[in-house]
Fold:
Amino acid sequence: MRKKLRVAVLMGGNSSEYEISLISGKEVLANLPEKYIDIPIVIPKYGSQWLEKLLKAEVDICFIAMHGPFGEDGKIQGLLDTLGIKYTGSKVAASAIGMDKILFRKMMKVENLPIPEYTVVDKKTKKINLGQFGKPPYFVKPYDQGSSVGASIVKKSKDLEEALKLAFSFSDKALVDEYLKGMEVTCSVLGNEDARALPVIEIIPKKGDFFDYESKYTESGSDEIVPARISSRLTKVVQELSIKVHKAIGARGFSRVDFILKENKYPIILEINTIPGLTPMSLLPKAARESGLSYSQLLDKIIRYSIYE
Structure:
């Protein structure tokens, strides 16, 4: 009889998304198929005691249910590579590119994929070049955070300084994007070289002007319509772009790509999430369910994509 694989579920970490990661981790533990032995590992914001527990557990693979810096940026992946422990999701390079929005945008430009007009502002110099934008509104966010942490819309020029101050409280660089008007949609991708796109989800924020942290993680914070109310042609374009983004950065197993449909017609790529949320309110499980995959089946696929790559 084949032995059950021992799966350590890593959650927490030194990140502004610590609490969300705990919710994702608990949801993974509650839905992990019975053919696996689950080992919960909570990584505190500070300290390394958890590492001894992980090494003693003799796990076959780590399921990384961590979001934001340390969990999604390649750091935990690099540590696990050094220890010779397999893990779910993207490897070091793809994780780092996905988290670094400046590097990601540069790669999208090389790949000739549609991105917003943007400029980078450094915390030290605070030099801003808004020549290509004209008057507000603008969209401001830290360059290396997830879950819309530190992001805001600038509606008047006098509010730009405050928006940058918020972004700089999380990162040493900020992106100032052109403000794109249109429907927000997102598309999850499963697989490696054989990647396939799941149904597109339409997002209607209710708590704010965009899909911010509160809209994402507060109950009734947004309406999420699956499948999105767009044409089959536009759906196909969004799905094909999502697969291209997934493959361009070398993502593995699963990802989610966020878009604005400019004028509700033209998909503009905002970012990729290499470890999308796995909470009960998260978008990847909803898209998987629409495609006929239960949460447990989704987790099983994510693990299998990493073990049998």
In short: The first strand starts at residue 5 and ends at 12.
